[in-house]
Amino acid sequence: MNGSTPIETLHQNLPSGISSSKIGLIIAIIGLLIFAAHLFSAIFSKRRIPDVLFLIIIGLIIGPLTHWVRPESLVLIGSILSAVTLVLILFESGIQLSFSTLKDSFRPSLRLTALNFIISAIAVWLIGWLVLKIDPIISLMLGCVLGGTASAVVIPTVRQLRMSQKSATIMILEAAIGNVFSIVLALALLEAIKSQHVEFGMIFGNIFSSFILATFFGLLGSIFWAMILDKVRNIKYSVLTTPAFVFIIYGVSEWMGYSGAIAALAFGIGMANIDGIYDSLLKKVVKKRPANLNDTERALFSELVLLLKTFFFVFVGISIQLTYWQPIVVGLGITAVLYILRIPVVRFAISKRDQIPDKELMYMSAIDPKGLTAAVLATQAVSYIPDLQTGLFIKNVVFSVILSSIVINSILIPLIAREKGLYRFYDKTLSFHQKMKHAVNKTKAEQEEKRKKRSRARELADEMFYPEVLEDVFKDQDSPGSLNHPESSNTDVAD
Amino acid sequence: MYQDTLQQVIDTIASQETVQETFNQADNLGVSDHTGLVIAILGLLIFAAHLFTEIFSRKRIPDVLLLMAIGLIVGPLLGWVKPESLGSVANVFTTITLVIILFESGTKLNFNTLLNSIKGTMRLTTINFFVTMVVVAVLGVVIEHFDILTSLMLGAILGGTSSAVVIPMVSQLKVSEKGGTILILESAFSDVLCIVFAWAFLKAAQSGSMHIGNVIGSILSSFILSTIIGFAAALLWSYVLDKMRHFKDSILTTPAFVFIVYGLNQWFGFSGAIAALAFGIGMANIDYAYHNSTILKKIFKSQPAQLNDIERQLFSEVVFLLKTFFFVYIGVSIRLDHFWPILIGFIITLVLFALRIPIVRASVHRERGEFPIEDKVFMSGIVPKGLAAAVLATIPAQQGLPGGELIQNIVFAVILFSIILTSILVPVLEHNNAISRFYRRCFGEHKEPSITDLLDQE
Fold first, then answer.
1. Minimal Cα–Cα distance from B79 to chain A, Å?
2. ipTM greater than 0.90, yes or no?
3. Using CA atoms, how far apart are residues B45 and B58, in angstroms rounded to an integer?
4. Angle of helix A486-494 relative to helix A421-464, nearest 10 degrees?
5. Does residue B230 contact residue B282 with C-beta atoms inside 8 Å?
6. How distant is the Cα of A330 from the closest Cα of chain B, in angstroms?
7. Distance CA A389, CA B219 (A)
8. What are the residue ranges in chain B where pLDDT is below 50?
9. Chain B contact present for A1, CB below 8 A
10. Taking the model in full, what pTM does it have?
11. Closest alpha carbon to A376 in A183, A236, A242
12. pLDDT for A210-241, tens place per residue?
């Protein structure tokens, strides 16, 4: 396709929602965006300003600010892009997790997820119920929607911060597990809003099946895939069949009602640890050693993730609504509360025994972005909540929280990295508990010392009041002009 | 008090949210409910594409046809996917497919073959274009009683072939390198003729006058300048490439650079497609160019970098992926509402395929000695219309030209039938049967197949 001058009119007249923009220009911009993404990630590794922030800003500029791209024209493709990005990011992060780190980080991660989720949900619930006067169940649903963190933001951030393997795994798992909590609880509450009653048994059942079955399904898929991968490689252009298979795993587990995200992550973990799985489980059953992913495949996946991530965040920027200021302010307030609460949450969830460096603890408390799951749940909520107005309000609040939490996340990280004011603030708040402990210990030690002194004094006194000694004293007392006069010496010793 | 404020807020929002937005919500909802399923289907589609390729290499049923059939089923027949719901993204996607396919096919062409085939290409492209244009114009006047300029415009729209269809087909066929190169180049060059002439006739139909000088000028500038820009960009990129490779995950910066080259060319008013092809050719032959050019050696001390195996592999993977979705999309976007334009489209397609035989004969007859007869047979069977035609077809209706709607529907029908006919003819022509014997006889093979031929076939 080409054109001379008329090409402009040509593209203006295309049956498209891009209006006056020209396809050629769009293609060039897409190309530039890929270069920009590399530039931004270079900036991230040098200046610690997350690339996510720049990408969202680009989206904001071409979307809500200048209206070059309208989110309505991207409805279908946007939701597919988001899901594809989520699946690939989870899978790709899975293939870099080893079983040993996983075992190491699973417990702290579960503690962090649960604590963060419960505290966030309760805080948002109370804000919604008591401050905004929203119906308590709807408000609790809002809390559950905002309880998790976003894998699509957390994983790239954690990667580029070069956090230790253990902390990174904790954060990645938190995002994945938190999503399941969010989805199951929020959907259960939405059902409750519709049907007016809550079934706790079902909720727990759902959470359980979501986790366990999705993990099982993902691992099983990875074993199967590793077994046939060698054969698949004989086909031309077959590298992309692995992501294609992940898509199927994701889609099928979503379809069966489990967590597709967890299945995709488990699939990645399974592929990365297939040798371990084979040695411990399959050696007796299967003779052939399963294939591992090779370097070309890994390189390709990581290229794809970079590409998808870039467009995903630009899309997030585009789809933010800036029409009404009220939900934006409410969302900003909620985000601020969530970030403040995150500090004690991290402090209490991660114990000394986990041996996480202080700086990484700080990063952990500064990473609490909301994302895809929250957006999807909020969109779904609109149709469940009987009152359309409240529904739309909640949706806009959630979108505002998503934006502001990602922005705050992106601002906090470079500030902490500089180790100035904010660093000291986080340092103090995170170690607040420790300092209190220290002070208590100090007073305790002092009191102990005092007690010891007293008891020694009492012993001395006892010795002094030893019957024989007393007898002597009394004998002396009887004699006139003696040194030990009862009024002076006795009271002294007793005290 | 809070409640009052909240109520106010909610009221403002509700009063401003239009009905349209509520519809969007509903749409959005439907999508997010089914996203899992859609993702699984996308995954399955990739496996299906591999299966179809395998079928193609064994049974010679083109994968293109099967992919389009899938698109037809999920699109017009079942109504699951509507082309409108893909909106503007579809335009961007088809263009990206075109750019990447052209670039990637460029990286597989070498200079010697290119020089060898350029003459044949030029002849084939121009003869095919002008003959098609004139004959379709006559058909338009006779059947539909269009006026002469409108008919010529219809002819110009249908004068080219589609790179997106031709290139994947050629790569799976047993044609000589030269024959393949001619077909690929024809598909790229003819787009330029199509667009420039169709626009010229459209303007002429509107204003009543035509500037031949302008038409020739824009064709020349399109060809020459976009080729130069493409080569220059390739030279530049091959010197930057080594540095880019230091970045993590930087393989996709090469396609990104192709996008920029394409976009800039389109923006300047040249042919982005030709520039993308030239860029690919430049990248593939940069070593050859460097060693055979004293000027380059003087300017640049160091050797330019070449694309490495991983990069090439990745590009082929991406092409495979894009091709898969592209053909499904073509299937989805076919309209089957009106019978009459479909019939006219079918007739035109048959005429085009019949005309193609003498056209190929006329354009490659001078190369008879070195040109295998199989190549000529395939060349006459490959006349698919595609992207350029589809884009051009929508313009007359939007410009309010009388009969614009009809033209659009006819062109869409021709696109569909020409791709289907190409996909059917290609496997048929490979075997020894009545049709392939007919084609062979057209190219001067008079003798009946010998016993050895028959044994080969067994």
1. 15
2. no
3. 20
4. 140
5. yes
6. 10
7. 58
8. 1, 6, 9-10, 12-32
9. yes
10. 0.77
11. A183
12. 778 889 999 999 999 999 998 888 888 888 89
